Amino acid sequence: MRRRLFIFSFLVAPVTLYLVYVIAPYAQAFYIAMTNWRGVNAAPQFIGLENFGRLLGDGVFWKAVGHNALLLALLPVITIALALVFAYLLNVGGAGGRTGVWGSKFYRVLFFFPQVLAVTIVAVLFQQVFRPDDSGMLNAPLMALGLKPVGFLSNPSIALWSVMAVLIWQAVGFYVVLFSAGLASIPREMFEAAQIDGAGRMSMFFRVTLPLLRDTVQVAWVYLGIIAMDAFAIVWVMTDQHGGPDRSTTVMAAEIYRNAFQYFQFGYASALGVVMFFFVLGFAVLSLRLSRRERIEF
After folding, report:
1. Per-residue confidence of the chain (298 residues) as pLDDT tens digits?
2. What is the reported pTM?
């Protein structure tokens, strides 16, 4: 009994804080989603599921859902693939018995550098990189060769791909470091045994490295999926008209912000937020369920 009271006394404060600052705001958001609240000075009126019915016919929101779905399908795959290759080269890919390529420590710092920058700084930086004139880092050499500048952020056909490229550039360094830590925990004897058995680098990567990093890859997949379902800051700061042109780069979070703080439809914005919450929750649960397996001990 005393042991239970002792444990309970330590749990009271954190559980209370969690209920007040996490669960209560979620509950409040669910309630606001069923009202027509337009701001702090207006009394909300309960309208039931009307906002959710309106959401079903909101073409702009479903366009944003499609953009998030495209990011979800490609961003984790490309980022994890690049990070795995770079981490493998930095930790295992060296010749002559080295554990990695020459200068691997410097490359780790270089890859991780984008994580030091704030998201808004990254967005403003790539605004300049993608400028459609001779001051843009990418268009300047094209124009010097007599070619037409590319509207990376002004062409609706490629604007979202430009945003995805920035998200990958920003994220890949963190996962290089994460996978490097996972590789460092794998006993060197496993790689040596594979080499003795005649395994080449590709075979060693797919038959030894990747299976032993599966738990780390699973975590990376969930985190990157959540990033793909958000992507608000990059889109809002970097793109024209905060999701343009012509809503070609808008995402769910951007539409939630727009409805709340530009159109002052807080009830409808909360309904969009509730839908986004279940999308993200469903993705995380499904990913963890499908990738569940017995843990490999080594």
Report:
1. 677 787 788 888 888 999 999 899 889 999 999 999 887 777 788 898 999 999 999 999 999 999 999 999 999 999 999 998 888 888 775 554 445 667 677 777 788 888 888 889 999 999 999 988 888 888 888 888 888 888 899 889 999 999 999 999 999 989 998 888 888 777 777 766 777 767 666 777 777 777 778 888 888 998 999 999 988 999 999 988 888 888 999 999 999 999 999 888 999 999 999 999 999 989 888 887 877 665 555 5
2. 0.85
Where do the domains of the chain lie?
Answer: 59-264
Contacts 24+ apart (CB under 8 A), 60-64: 60/247, 60/250, 60/255, 61/252, 61/255, 61/272, 63/247, 63/250, 64/243, 64/247, 64/250, 64/251, 64/252, 64/254, 64/255
Domain 59-264 has CATH 1.10.3720.10: yes
